[in-house]
């Protein structure tokens, strides 16, 4: 029996390099919504942790991300830990998918989860062919709260690119929409 899996998408409004990044659209869907829907079916529950009003008012399962946890200097790990304390339920694994990685597919997420579970790993991350991390982190919750460095870890190589600038967005949009 597979451990219960919670999916978390962290999307804040304050991107410094590309304003409004998490609400930019590809295939008629915001990057945040795309990440959320990518996790559906892979996880037992998915929660979008955000301070973006349009997302909080959507039909997605959301958790309001207050200002003290929404600044650009707040580490992702702190935001995810805060969210896990707020979300009800008992989960053995958390999958974090960043909205700025829309090329990550359900297949990539499932590969990460399966690699973690099948090999009894603590952490699995996705990386692009360039060796840079690109958006998926799967981690055992018990390990997450006890350690600060990854050990007994695995990786899944994807063709995904991260979006940090307008140029990145234009490139990914062109690839995904074929325009």
Set out the fold topology.
Blueprint: E1 5-11, E2 25-26, E3 29-30, H1 31-39, E4 45-50, H2 53-56, E5 62-64, H3 76-86, E6 93-97, H4 106-118, E7 123-128, E8 133-140, H5 141-146, E9 153-158, H6 166-177
Parallel strand pairs: 1-4, 1-6, 4-5, 7-9
Antiparallel strand pairs: 2-3, 6-8, 7-8
Please provide a brief summary of the model.
The protein is an alpha/beta fold. 31% of the residues lie in helices and 25% in strands.
Tell me the strand percentage band: 25-35%
Output the strand order for the largest sheet.
5-4-1-6-8-7-9
Helix content: 25-40%
Mean pLDDT: 92
Write the element-wise H/E pattern from the N-terminal end onward. EEEHEHEHEHEEHEH
**CATH 4th-level superfamily:** Spore Coat Polysaccharide Biosynthesis Protein SpsA, Chain A
Please mark out the parts with pLDDT under 50 across 5 or more consecutive residues, or reply none.
none
Biggest sheet layout: 7 strands, mixed
Task: Look at the helices and sheets and give the structural class.
Answer: alpha/beta
CATH class: Alpha Beta
